[in-house]
Amino acid sequence: MDMPALEIQLQTLPNQPGVYQYFDKEGTIIYVGKAKNLKKRVSSYFTKTHDNGKTRVLVKKIANIKHIVVETETDALLLENNLIKKHKPRYNVMLKDDKSYPWICIKNERFPRVFSTRRVFKNGGEYFGPYTSVKTVYTLLDLIKGLYSLRTCNYDLAEEKIQAGKYKVCLEYHLGNCNGPCEGFETETEYNENIKAIKEILKGNFKDSLQQFKKQMRDLADNMQFEEAQKIKEKVEVLENYQSKSTIVNPKISNVDVFTIMSDESYGYINFLQLSYGSIIRSHTLEIKKKLDETDKELLELAITEIRQRFHSKSKEIYVPFPVDLGEDIKVTVPQLGDKKHILDLSLRNAKYFRMERFKQMKIVDPDRHVNRIMAQMKADLRLSEEPRHIECFDNSNIQGTNPVAACVVFKNGKPSKKDYRHFNIKTVEGPDDFASMEEVVYRRYKRMLDEQQPLPQLIIIDGGKGQLSSALKSLDALNLRGKIAIIGIAKRLEELFYPNDPIPLYLDKKSETLKIIQQLRNEAHRFGIEHHRNRRSKSALNTELETISGVGEKTVVELLKHFKSAKRVANAKLDELEEVVGVSRAEKVYNYYHGK
């Protein structure tokens, strides 16, 4: 499929946060930007008149747009920063000092220090972040300082040096900010318990710390130490209000390629994320047209080789959703949880959005082709003799046997045709008998269509298993329509389709568009039927008691309900209030019914 025109790309962008990249006709990246809503932001470049001359030149040069969908604005900000530093696009403002975002480091040492840094070193410790605001970092560090006593000195606290009495406690110890590990006043185990709790806080897991502080707060309050309890309460409030860190970048994930696949009957969509030093520096989605019935594994292996060659990737490790065979030189990881799984999910999300946009673009450019493709697919999947351009689906609704109704929804060319929907109140069946009800509505529907010489559908879908299907077939036989219209039944497990005279159901692929349309039909029939059923039930429940009063007719009931708004208020109304609405004679009848003579 060729690259769609810019106008079509703009129409199909998602309303999600993300990063967009503009390319010129040579394929060079010329601008990177972030957006809370990709569609609105990117469209604004092409719909507004720009005062800035450089922006006008930029817009003229845009030949292609790519985007990466992320979860939050913070993620978009971080990703934009990474891509600008990697590609140095011509129209982006470059930070002259190339400042990076701040991190919080827990140093790799005995009695670790906790501090902020803008530089990430391998084996320099454990890093958390990055944070988009220095203020957030200092707030967190103040919070940690307030919660736990940590050292701030840069002494080498080796055990033999402490035992030799090499260090003396400083002012921080006397102020109560440090427990004095330099003189052995605090054990390594106690200190590491605090570090463990701090790591959980930095990961956004406050559960353990909150429980611990709430217990402390209760103990202090029980001992009448209310000032100390208030201080702990303030710590708890700060902890509860703090928002968790962004997960777009993790320094532990270094120099890795991420690949995911989303496929349908005709195409496979493979997304590639390239990570360098924990940062996403590239996103690309490849579309592969299926020649035969290739599996996702075959398509993914083919795409990985192609993409790695195209982008000259030398990464020794890749993340994929399932195992693939790529030779012994590449380590294949299938993440199950944590940040690695989060990155894999992000890649899959981008593949899904790419596929959705392609479908939207195809609908705009060639709507007939899109419909023809789906109709041909349904004909093949459902083993029909002709394309199901006109489909009708029937569903029964009765709750505890009351007010039995049925619904018929109609799809034309794969889309709902709401003007053709019909409701049926069951007339000939007493009590809840779904089979007899189905027989009645199918007969009534097609008897009328034959009488009025309306075009018949190519496919009838019965929401129910073999029993419902048999009932519908009786009606088709009675109307001499057997064999003229294809008919199938769908069981509760939606992918099971039943055909007349065939005891074995047909199973549809859960990812197929045919199943999606059948699902949509069934859901519409449910919705439409239940809506009508509720209306009838509530109307009858509301009116029943009032209408049973001797000498009170439908008009009186409507007047009373209009005025009093509910049957309960009518029952509680005073005689003079009723008289004002319906006159003396009828007011007495209603009043006496509820209150006795």
TrEMBL record:
Q: Which residues form the UvrC family homology region profile domain?
A: 236-476
Domain UVR, which positions?
A: 207-242
Predominantly, its location class is cytoplasm
Extract the SMART domains matched here: GIYc
Q: Where is this protein found?
A: Cytoplasm
- Stretches assigned to the GIY-YIG domain: 15-93
What CDD domains does this protein's entry cite?
GIY-YIG_UvrC_Cho
Transmembrane ranges, per UniProt, are none
How does the annotation summarize its subunit structure? Answer: Interacts with UvrB in an incision complex.
Biological role stated in the UniProt entry: The UvrABC repair system catalyzes the recognition and processing of DNA lesions. UvrC both incises the 5' and 3' sides of the lesion. The N-terminal half is responsible for the 3' incision and the C-terminal half is responsible for the 5' incision.
HAMAP family named in the record:
UvrC
NCBIfam families assigned: uvrC (TIGR00194)
Q: Which family does it belong to?
A: Belongs to the UvrC family.
What name does UniProt use for this protein?
UvrABC system protein C
Q: Upper taxonomic classification of the species?
A: Bacteria, Pseudomonadati, Bacteroidota, Flavobacteriia, Flavobacteriales
Gene name, Swiss-Prot/TrEMBL: uvrC
